[in-house]
Every structure is written in structure tokens, then in C-alpha cells.
Amino acid sequence: MRTLKPRERILYAGTCQGTPVTERYPAARDAGFTAVTLFASDIVAARSLGLGCDDLKTMIADAGLTLSNVEIVGNWMPGQSADTPLLPREMAVAMLDGTAERVCRTAADLGSAAVTVADLFGLPFDAPEVAKHFAKVCDVAADHGLDVTLEFVPTGCVRTVAQAQEVLERADRTNAGMLVDSYHFFRAGSSLEDMARVPPELISSWQMNDAAATPATDDAFADMMIRAMPGDGAFDLKGLMQALAATGTTAPAGIEVFSAELSALPFPELARRSAEGLDYCLALSGVDA
């Protein structure tokens, strides 16, 4: 049986939202992570502290880490509107501010390897149309020397792992792959069989978390903010880990847990628990069924 062996260990920005960027990186390194990500909101918050892209780039490098992704390009499909009922208005406006050119330019200034792309506006899945616009994002990113990570989200125009694979194959861009997030995977009803069939070159990265078997609220965005560390919820993480392992991927892997409770922890403890959560998932990938 294959065991997952990711080539990078990423502490995703979603886990770190209770901690300023100035306090994240040595603790992330000490917990065993090799890379981090940044939200656009992190960059805005850093600017309010007088820190520019060069400062952030230096902070990350001085901790011995790399920046894997800047998140997210949210404005890339026609029909997206700040009036969506799926997002708080402030979040919707921020997402629409995330054009491909703007996010890619910032990511390049930060020395990031990639940008993440997602739609959270509930648009219908139209494979040719989505692939056309996704390919345009990939071309902008390529002009900046960046890869593109497509995140499928149950409240977006790309909801499942199978849809993400179809978009990637139709777009046919060498700098593109998908991000597999366990929360979105299970909430959207993606199948383990579809996951196991994805060619490894189409998997850019994966991020793990856990949650209750059913949503805690009818508000999809609010439910996304109620996650748990792997092993503390009801997701079939063993099945997902083994499906990922079956692909043969060595893609970078990490932890993304939005949780008010966990965000209240001292950051070194949160980083340590995140590393333990990743190790828990990696161990599941090699457990016999």
C-alpha cells in the first residue's frame, strides 16, 4: 500500500487568522512546517503595520520557510456579484477585489510559487465556460512566473473533485493543478473513487481538516468557519488519505482549520497541533482498510 509522502508541509493561512503575520513564522518552522500561505487580507493587515511585500518576503525566508500560495483570485468568472447571499458583503467585495492581475502581481512580488483560484459566488457549473476563464487566469499567472491552484468549493462554480479535473483537462495549462480541501471534498459530496482516479500531475496540493458529519448551520459560509483538527470530527479522512495515496501524488500537504476556539490558542501550540494533525492524516494513508 502506498503511503503519502508530500514534498512540502504547509501551514495554511486559514489556520493562522487569530495571529498577526509578525508572530507566525518561527513557530511554524519549529513545528516542522516548511511552507506557508498568505491571504490577501494578511497582506492588507501587514501594510497597516508598515510592512510591504519585501518585509513579508524577508520574514518568511528568515524563518527558513517558503511561500507556497497567495490566496485567492476570487474575481475571474462573469456573473459574480457582491449581492450574493452566500457570502457576507464585506467578504464578497474583498473577493471581487481579487482579480488575476492584482493577485498575481502581488504574489510575484512576495516570491510565491503559486496563486489559489476559487469561486464562492454559487455560479452554475458550465465546464467549457469555466475552463475558458480559468485558462485566462493561468495565462496571467504564467506571465508572472506563477503556478495556479484551483480549489473546488461546494458554493462555487467548481464544486467537486470530478468537476475540477474536467476544468483542468479542458483548460490544458501546464502551470495548473487542483487543491484538495477535505472540508470542501466532503461537504460537496465528492467521491473517493473520483479522487483515486485523478492523475497525480493534476494535484497541486492538499489541505486537511475535520468537521461534523452534517453542517452546523444552514449558512454555508458560517459552517466553513466551524472546523476541527483532523481526528476531531466525523469526516472519512482515512478513505480520503488512501484515495490520495492511490493517485501516487507527492504534492505539498498541510492543515487549514478555521476555528475560533483553536485561534484562541497560543500560536506555538496551534502550530504544534497542526503538525500533529498532518502527521495523523499521513499515518492514515498507510493503514490497511
Give structural notes.
Residues 27-278 form the Xylose isomerase-like TIM barrel domain. InterPro entries: IolE/XylAMocC-like, Xyl_isomerase-like_sf, Xyl_isomerase-like_TIM-brl. The chain has 289 residues and is an alpha/beta fold. The chain has one domain (9-284): Divalent-metal-dependent TIM barrel enzymes (TIM Barrel), CATH 3.20.20. 42% of the residues lie in helices and 14% in strands. It is built from 13 helices and 8 strands. Strand 4, helix 6 and strand 5 (147-151) form a beta-alpha-beta unit. Helix 6 crosses helix 7 (161-171). It is globular and about 45 Å long. The mean pLDDT is 97.
Number of domains: 1
Distance between the termini: 10 Å
Q: Give the SSE string.
A: EHEHHEHHEHEHEHHEHHEHH
Counted by DSSP, the helix tally is 13
Number of DSSP E strands: 8
Mean of residue pLDDT values: 97
Task: List segments where confidence is low: pLDDT < 50 over at least 5 consecutive residues.
Answer: none
The outline comes out as globular
The largest sheet has its strands arranged as 1-2-3-4-5-6-7-8
Q: Give the C-level CATH assignment.
A: Alpha Beta
Helix amount: 40-55%
CATH superfamily: Divalent-metal-dependent TIM barrel enzymes
Class of secondary structure makeup: alpha/beta
Radius of gyration: 17 Å
Biggest sheet features: 8 strands, parallel, barrel
| CATH topology title | TIM Barrel
Strand content: 5-15%
Architecture in CATH? Alpha-Beta Barrel
Domain Xylose isomerase-like TIM barrel: 27-278
Protein name: TIM barrel protein
